[in-house]
Design brief:
- 53% of the residues lie in helices and 11% in strands.
- Among the domains are: 104-188, Four Helix Bundle (Hemerythrin (Met), subunit A), CATH 1.20.120; 201-401, Rossmann fold.
- Helix 6 (109-127) runs antiparallel to helix 7 (134-146) and helix 13 (307-321) crosses helix 14.
- It has 410 residues and is an alpha/beta fold.
- The strands form 2 sheets. An 8-stranded mixed sheet has the order 5-4-6-3-7-8-9-10, with helices on both faces. It has a two-stranded antiparallel sheet with strand order 1-2.
- It has 16 helices and 10 strands.
- Bound molecules: guanosine-5'-diphosphate.
- Guanosine-5'-diphosphate (GDP) binds next to helix 10.
- Guanosine-5'-diphosphate binds at residues 219-225, 250, 253, 361-362, 364-365, 387-390, 394.
């Protein structure tokens, strides 16, 4: 008996459901357009048979249908507005709005402190020891050397700290933190001009030309990525940018750069693979002048094993660009994880072109933040930007205070 009742019930339910579907299908064709509040548009526009939409697409569609039925809504013309809405659906390849650059280092601070704890916190712990004997001072020295601060700056810092700790007498943790903060800042330098020089120059014809930035460095350091990120920094600061893909040595570099450019609406000037980098650089500046762009960023190729070739090539790129007018900035990209090797690279590049600023990449992946001190000493030019990740906006203007605070906490 129960079974019969159950069977009848199931039959009723199934019939009802089928009927409902049919009715709802028909209703779609007959009813007037929905009031604005009806949440039908997005779900119904989803192509019904998209396999990848899977469960997620079906649920909203069913929801929409339910809503239509519940609210007693139409569908005949409901489909019309839905289709009209379709043009909204294809998302235009929108030009991204990069994050503002102010305070980026503070935003990325967590990454910095994670990777640099052994330096800052290690030093603080050692300085807080009850007895600061020779052994402890040696450990402090080792900590600095391990972080790639370099021999001479390490010695200077340890001497200064020894002297000041002696004068201090009792050492509260706060005293020590402030003292270390001051000394690290003195070592890094707070009065250097760390802005990337992108102001317009006066061209050889007497007219204004875009600011020209050459980005140099060994392939693999993150040079192309940095050029792309820098374009975003400049766009975020309201400047228009033209990119020059003069790294014709690495096959994918031009495509990579162009993709970065497209994301922020910057045109990329490129040439054939293996083509003459200097002529691409020349054309890029020419394009920048024609577009009255604010800045032209030129990505160059770097390969140390053919030092002479590199010298010739880079020197030529710069000379050829200078036929238009001055190059405002030559940024050397160094990978912070390469330690002493990075310093060797810095030396070689400095022989080739006048480096005016350094970009240290991959600081998120190393505890060797001391390289900032070492490389500034080596080249006598400031670190201007730091790379703190692979994200598009993970390039930050270098601010010594924010950096030191991330190291030792504030
Ligand atoms: P190029 O040969 O010097 O032009 O090198 P690329 O620009 O292609 O970069 C090499 C790799 O380094 C890529 O995988 C980048 O995503 C990565 N990279 C660049 N900068 C950073 C950074 O600041 N942090 C991290 N973690 N990776 C980076």
């Amino acid at each position: 008996m129960e079974t019969v009742i159950l069977a009848v019930l199931i039959a009723v339910v199934v019939l009802g459901a089928v009927g409902g579907l049919v009715v709802s299908g028909r209703k779609k064709k007959q009813l007037p357009p929905p009031p604005p509040a009806a949440p039908v548009t997005p779900p119904v526009t989803a192509p019904p048979a998209e396999p990848q939409v899977g469960e997620e697409a079906e649920t909203p569609r069913e929801e929409a249908r339910r809503t239509i039925e519940e609210v007693g809504l139409p569908t005949a013309e409901a489909e019309a507005p839905v289709e009209v809405a379709e043009p909204e659906a294809p998302v235009a390849p929108a030009v991204e709005v990069p994050e503002p650059t102010a305070g980026r280092l503070v935003r990325l601070r967590a990454r910095l402190s994670r990777s640099q704890t052994s330096l800052g916190k290690g030093l603080l712990t050692l300085l807080s020891r009850e007895r600061l004997d020779d052994e402890t001072w040696e450990e402090i020295e080792d900590t600095l050397l391990t972080a790639d601060v370099g021999v001479a700056p390490t010695q200077e810092l340890v001497d200064r700290l020894r002297e000041r700790v002696k004068v201090l007498g009792t050492r509260t943790p706060e005293d020590l933190r402030l003292l270390l903060r001051e000394e690290l800042l003195a070592l890094i330098g707070t009065d250097a001009d760390r802005s990337v020089h992108t102001a317009n120059g006066i061209g050889n014809g007497g007219d204004e030309i875009p600011g020209v930035v050459l980005v140099v460095g060994v392939n693999g350091t993150g040079k192309t990525t940095t050029t792309g990120k820098l374009a975003r920094v400049l766009v975020a600061d309201g400047k228009s940018v033209v990119l020059g893909a003069a790294d014709t040595f690495r096959a994918a570099a031009a495509d990579q750069l162009q993709t970065w450019g497209e994301r922020v609406g910057a045109r990329t000037v490129r040439g054939p693979e293996g083509g003459d980098p200097a002529s691409i650089a020349y054309d890029a500046v020419k394009e920048g002048i024609a577009e009255t762009a604010d800045v032209v960023l030129i990505d160059t190729a770097g390969r140390l094993h053919t030092k002479t070739g590199l010298m010739d090539e880079l020197g030529k790129v710069k000379r050829v660009v200078e036929k238009h007018g001055p190059v405002g900035e030559v940024l050397l990209v160094l990978d912070a994880t390469t330690g002493q090797n990075g310093l060797v690279q810095a030396r070689v590049f400095a022989e080739v072109v006048d480096i005016t600023g350094v970009v240290l990449t991959k600081l998120d992946g190393t505890a060797k933040g001391g390289i900032i001190v070492a490389v500034q000493r080596e080249l006598g030019v400031p670190v201007k930007l730091v790379g703190l990740g692979e994200g598009a906006d993970d390039l930050a203007p270098f601010e010594p205070e924010a950096f030191v605070d991330a190291l030792i906490g504030d």
